[in-house]
Amino acid sequence: MLSIEGYAFFPDLPEESQFKIEHEIVVNKVTLINDEVKYDEVYSIIADHQDSNNTRYLASLDFATMTNGHPLIGGQYEVMVRLKQFVDGRWIGQNLTLGRLDNAQVDYTYTTKMRWFRQKVVSTYSFVVIQKKNSQVFNVKVTKLSQINPALLIVKDGVAQGERISILKSKKRIFRFAYNVFKKYYQ
Q1: Predicted pLDDT of residue 173
Q2: Gap between the Cα atoms of 91 and 7, Å rounded
Q3: What is the CB neighbour count within 10 angstroms for residue 11?
Q4: pTM for this structure?
């Protein structure tokens, strides 16, 4: 779970009504195609207002359930804030970077591993969150480390069940072949 808190506002458009200004945290998948960067929105959540003038926001991102209850798939992502304000009978909006970290002396890097369990598969993911101290871009790199079916890992006598099945099939083929050879030449 990642909590994001910050300030975002249109400086020329003050708004007193909390119902006429919204902050939305947006996660975009970044894809490089023929030296062209493509952004696809994969997740968004409306942030809570944290003060009376509606410039401060707070939101929590759960990377384990972002895509229909599943973790993010491997790749590069950017986290941004979408600021929307109701002005003169219409909504105006703009995607903004999250900005700089307060009192940052060095680059911010956070790495964690996540295990995700479902009926037949256990998946392990690596999440790396990076923000350079002078950059306003907040990047997330997701890597799928492993995907294992635990049912195939049942171990008896030091041999995994999946290996045991393949060993038994191999033995059966070898003995059938040997039987046919001996039957043909030694009868």
Answers
A1: 92
A2: 19
A3: 6
A4: 0.67
